[in-house]
Amino acid sequence: MTLPILYNCPPSGNCYKVRLFAALAGIELEIRDIDLAAGSQKTAEFTALNPWQQVPVLQDGEKTVIWDSQAILVYLAETYGKHDWLPSDPVGRAKVTQWLSVAVNEIQHGPADARLVKLFGYPLRYDDAARASERTLKIIDDYLSGHKWLAAEHPTIADCAAYPYLALAPQGEISLESYPSLRRWISDVEALPGYIPVDQ
Ligand SMILES: N[C@@H](CCC(=O)N[C@@H](CS)C(=O)NCC(=O)O)C(=O)O
To answer: Which keywords appear in this protein's UniProt record, sorted alphabetically (predicted)?
Structure first.
C-alpha cells in the first residue's frame, strides 16, 4: 500500500500539527522534507502542489492533494475513520471547527508570529504578536479552567491544531507562567499515548 506523502519542514508548527495527529491516531505517513530556507517551496513542481508555496501539503495517491494543516487534519480523520478525533454530529463538528479557526487566527497571530520573529527573524511586529498572545493565552487559559480538552470530553483534532504553537510559545519568548490551566492541558496532550515532540 502506498502511504500518503506529507511534505514537511521539521521546525514548522503547522507541519507538526499533522505529524502529531498522525502519531496519536496511529496513521502512517511518508515524510518528505522541504527546505524552506533554500526556497524549495518556490519551485514550479512544489507550486503545482500548493500555489501558496507553503508546507504542509499532503499527497494521497495520484489525484488527492490537500494543503493547509487544518484541512489535512480533517482529511486524515475522515479518511481513516478516526471519529473520536472529529465528531460528525453538527454540534461536535462545529465545536472542533471553531478551534481550528482559533488555531489559524488568534494562535497564529499571537504565539506563532512571536516565534517566527524570535526563532527565524521574520519581519513581523513582535510587540503586536506579544500583545495578541497575552489576550489569546488568557482566554484559552480561562476556557481550559473549566474544560479538560478544547472541543469535546476527549481529545480531538482541535487539540492537535492548537497544541504546537501554544506549547512552543516560550520559543517566541512568550511565557506560559501565568496560565496554569493551559500548562495542565499541555501536560495532558504530552501524556497521550503516541505523543511525539516537535523535533521527532
Ligand atoms: N494556513 C497554513 C499556513 C502554512 C504556513 O504558514 N506554512 C509555513 C511554514 S509553518 C510555510 O510554508 N512558509 C513558507 C515560507 O516561509 O516561505 C497551514 O495551516 O498549513
So the answer is: Transferase
- Say which CATH topology domain 5-79 has: Glutaredoxin (3.40.30)
State how beta strands 57-60 and 5-8 pair. antiparallel
Q: Give the Cα separation of 7 and 5 in Å (integer).
A: 6
CATH topology of domain 90-190: Glutathione S-transferase Yfyf (Class Pi); Chain A, domain 2 (1.20.1050)
- How much is the pLDDT for 124? 97
The three three-digit cell numbers of residue 179, written as one number: 496560565
Q: Whose CA is nearest to atom 20 of ligand 1?
A: 68
Residue labelled with grid coordinates 496532550: 189
**Which atom of ligand 1 is the closest one to the Cα of 68?**
20
How many angstroms is it from 146 CA to the middle of ligand 1? Answer: 32
Q: What is the DSSP letter of 131?
A: H
Band of pLDDT at residue 1, cut at 50, 70 and 90:
confident
